[in-house]
Amino acid sequence: MPATFLGVRHHSPVCARLVARTITTLRPSHVLIEGPADMNDRLDELLLGHELPVAVFSHYRDAVRTTTSWTPFCAYSPEWVALTEGRAAGARVRFIDLPAWHPAFEGRSNRYADAEARYVRASARLRDRFGVDCADALWDRLFEAADPPDPDGSPDPQDPPDPDGEDALAERLALYFDVLRGDAEADTGDRAREEYMAGWVRASLAEAGERPVLVVTGGFHRPALRALVERPAGGTSGRQGGPEVPRPPADAEAGSHLVPYSFHRLDAFTGYQSGMPSPGYHQDLWENGPRAAGDALVRAVTGRLRARGVHVSTAALIGARAAAGALAALRGHTRPARLDLFDGLAGALLDEAVDEPLPWTRHGRLRSGTHPVLAELVAAGRGDRTGRLHPDTPLPPLVRDVTDRLAALGLDFSGPVTLRLTETAGRERSRLLHRLRILAVPGYLRTRGPGHGTDPEYTERWEPGPAVGREAALIEAGSHGRTLEDASAAALAERIRADGSAPDALAGVLFDTVVCGVTGLLGPLLAELRAAVGRSADPGPLGEALHTALGLWRHDRVYGVGRDPLLAGFVDAAAHRVLWLVEGVRGAADADLGRLRALAAVRDALLHAADRLTLDQDAAVAVCTRVSGDREAPADLRGAAFGLCRSLGTGADPAAAVASLSGPAVLGDWLAGLFALAREELTTPGDDSRSLLATLDTLVTGLSGTEFLVGLPALRQAFAYFPPRERRRIADRLLERRGLRGSARSLLRTTGDPLLLAHARQLEDDVLRTLDRHGLGAAR
Questions:
Q1: Are the beta carbons of 387 and 50 closer than 8 angstroms?
Q2: Which of 193, 392, 627, 745 minimizes the number of CB atoms within 10 Å of its CB?
Q3: 135 near 361, Cβ under 8 Å?
Q4: Separation CA 341–CA 284 (nearest Å)
Q5: Local structure of 721: helix, strand or coil
Q6: Per residue in 698-722, is it b (16+ CB within 10 Å) or e — as a string?
Q7: What is the pLDDT of residues 272-297, one digit of tens each?
């Protein structure tokens, strides 16, 4: 007997019901399912009695490739129904797809990712034909909303008889997928997968004899599988029991574990490519039927909006239901379906126009800036269900290791934790929590503590965080290693490989490596940083790495890397490179805080690590002198270079430096650069003839009203470097220069926005000049 091929859409209730009815009717000897063949020996584990949704999490790592993948199941996944109903019917149930680590899945983080991109033209023609906006709406129109049955699979007695039957639905699905696949060329990965699955089908047909074989796969694969199975078999594809399951190379680490999953991760609106949108709605549809699912959606939307202070009147809900019913009738639906309900609710609850199409008119992630009411509609359709594993589920060794360590150190997520990093016990608990943080395991959130290499903070505070997803994240983290030390080291090593060309990203890895106590990675990480120095073309990111490394070298008294010679070597190389890059920058760009911080890091290296540098201070001053006087260099760099010279004790003349600027428009950027490196220039008393404060005071008071307005925004931004106490000190010095007595504090308090006050003063001056020009000045 030939095989029966059912092409399905993953996570589709209508397809899941069709699978269940087909198994009941066909009573097959074999049920073959698109899924990881390496899980066939563990089907009992998969069927322990978990609370869905759950997923098979697979991982793989070798010297050149690291990959992770998920195979999710919810109650209405056709694959899950095929598995459970096939078992119940006494069939031999098998997954028939390649393992997730196989190169055929390269670049895919989800086994059930749709192949829609390969049949976009056919899909577009169908959407035009049926007048719908996206593939999800097309699917709803053709299948989910066509005539949805009650949960037990029988039609609603209030509905007209269904002219189609089970066979007609299967035929429509087959025609739909045949049209979509058409002559689309499968890629190398899909061809390998389809050849492998066809081998399982041939082997099962040989075993079954005259008994039926049911094959449940994604609809994209159905046409190709049928053609491959009908073709004569070659090689060992028909071997007894099915094709051999590939094994990972001996030098690779690979494995699979069950993890709890969530509707949030299943939702197409959160980025799951093969997800049916609104899994919470579809769960209600699966369990309770369309009428109850619609009522639950309206209640959920109402509750979410009212909880956020949005008024939802009874009249609006009545209007939404009426609109949904009218849209359903217009679209040929026997009852309001998901899109009818969404459109009706949006029309009744939105009291203003929106600037973009409704979220459900396209497939994909919800865009940022979506109207809050629409975002709540989408969230209500998603639901908040999270799966739970059966207590007997085998877990990776890391889970037990972390559980034991948390218990031993008294960390139970029940309350805030304050740690003294100067104490051995505090450092041990800190390292554990940081390792969980870099493995993205929820539990504690750090609200206080050192955030950078130069941060002289020796106390950390951690607060309990959301627990949702903790178990799944910990199981997934087990792919990195059997113990917390191994897993955190592997995760940091992956970040080093991924961020090797970005010194600022590597700076973050450097700090995390230190706080996690993974000292064995310091050598390779600093070697990668040294290599990144030679590739760096932007001083900003390189300066961030220099800032972090120098801070750890100078200030670390906790983690044991202070005065480390490897850190000192990187500091030296990075300081040379930053100066070389800075001298080559040209153009009249706006102030760049990144490159200003880079020069500040060079200054700190020259001041605090001079004995470890091959960079000569006189050579650095010579470079900065050239930059500060270069009229083609950006104003912020010129100011920063001048500030570096002053901070190193040279006698650079501020009057000459300011006089070289092209006008008030660039003065603020020049000062921003100066204050980034030598803020004390305005707050430290000194020789008034060489004082920057005196120079600026003379310059600003000599500006015309228009010139002052031009320079004011940048001036305000530059002075934002000063905290309130230092601004008051500047005001005191200005009062002193004028021989005035008064309160500097009151001088800093204005009655309005300084920019508006300046505009008002200019307007007043313009009016007075106009009066004078017309001989009306005497009237004043």
A1: yes
A2: 392
A3: no
A4: 14
A5: coil
A6: ebeeebeeeebbbbbebbeebbebb
A7: 876 689 999 999 999 999 999 999 99
